[in-house]
Amino acid sequence: MTTKVQSYLSFEGRCEEALEFYKANLGAVVENIMRFKEMSGPVQCGPGESPPVIPNGEKILHSSFTIGETQLMASDGRMSGEKPEFKGISLAITVPDDATAKKRFDALAASGMAIQAPTPAFFTTSFSIVADKFGVTWMIVSNTQPKAP
User: Fold this and answer.
1) What DSSP letter does each residue of 30-60 carry, written as one string?
2) Sheet holding 91-95, edge to edge
3) Which of 27, 48, 65, 125 lies at a CB distance of 3.0 to 4.6 Å from 144, suitable for a disulfide?
4) Cα gap 119→136, rounded to integer Å
5) Residue 135, SS3?
6) CB atoms within 10 A of CB 37
């Protein structure tokens, strides 16, 4: 078996909403969902840690989903009441063409924040950056190469 690194997103109580949003706007396919009510045994806490606040068993303990060929994992997290911040990380998504890049950018920016509108770059005909409504930053790259000068 080879080593595999995957991204795990914590949505602080909004995981189900995020999964539905990514299904509708990025074509995500949800592979599994495990809810807190399905967990066996007590929640384990480290020294000095408080147990998580679990408002109801319907919240998501763990999920996995794919966008294209990439598998991501997500949960409602520990739901500490603190607002999560995604600092120093972005997810990059490569799409087949500029039209798809614009469609994905518009969908994420509609309820989020446009950081860089789709623009040509030395490595692609369309590159953009957008933060979605959950605070996740996405870099959207068209798989279309610029023409040589």
Assistant:
1) EEEEEEGGG--SPPP--TTPPPPP-S-TTSE
2) 91-95, 137-142, 124-131, 113-121
3) 125
4) 20
5) coil
6) 11
pLDDT in tens, the chain (149 residues): 665 768 888 888 899 999 999 999 999 999 999 888 887 655 555 566 666 555 577 888 889 999 999 999 998 876 555 565 546 678 989 999 999 999 999 999 999 999 999 999 888 899 999 999 999 999 999 988 877 76
Euclidean distance between CA atoms 138 and 33, whole angstroms: 23
Domains defined along the chain, listed by start = 1-81 (3.10.180.10), 85-149 (3.30.720.110)
Do the strands 91-95 and 137-142 form a parallel or antiparallel pair, or are they unpaired?
parallel
Q: What is the DSSP string of 68-91?
A: TTEEEEEE-TT--SSPP---S--E
